[in-house]
Amino acid sequence: MIPLTIPGRLFLVRHGETDWNREGRLQGGKDIPLNALGRMQAEEAARRLKALTPDYASVDYLCSPMERARETMTILRRELDLPPDDFRIDERLRELTFGDWEGFTWREIRSRERELARARESDKWGFVPPAGESYRMLAERIRPVLEALAPDTVMVSHGGVARAVLALIGAVGTADAARVEIWQGKILVVEGDKATWM
User: Fold this and answer.
1) pLDDT per residue over 158-198, tens digit each?
2) Which InterPro entries does the annotation name (predicted)?
3) Rounded CA separation 63/156 (Å)
4) Is pLDDT at 144 greater than 90 in this prediction?
5) CA 140, 125, 142 angle in degrees (round to 5)?
6) Catalytic positions, written as ranges
7) How far is 178 from 172, CA to CA, in rounded Å?
């Protein structure tokens, strides 16, 4: 994979917690709303962003179309005293879909579909769940979005998207990208081939 250079700085925010996050359920393409902690995490992300970039009002704001991401972005912008709904949505920033596995925990998947769970464990980047998509497919989907970013962009999206970004810029290898912990309430600042949690 040819490493991608993102123009300017990308402030990547993973949506706040949902009840399914708390329960360890695969959400993927399911539209699950934020819970109370998730809303507080969105507020925390706004405070972090304000400290990171005093010109936060002049950067571009881009969001996944999924409810949990849009709600996070709306709260974040409200906390910054910006018009809450004034941001762009890009369908390609949807979360990785787990297909038939959505709604289940990994423990349930390992119990029900041992062979497929083992296959995924041996190749998390390339494995395609039943009726789902792989991280490789996700990376191909979001690459054009990243190539067209404004010089400084706040993006609210998902854990899978953040992992794909890390692999695309060459910050981690594809074998490791699918295993990287992606935090809620913090901001992943991407500049060149470097990515730092703030």
Assistant:
1) 999 999 999 999 999 999 998 999 999 899 999 988 999 99
2) His_Pase_superF_clade-1, His_PPase_superfam, PG/BPGM_mutase_AS, PGM_Phosphatase
3) 5
4) yes
5) 20
6) 15, 95
7) 10
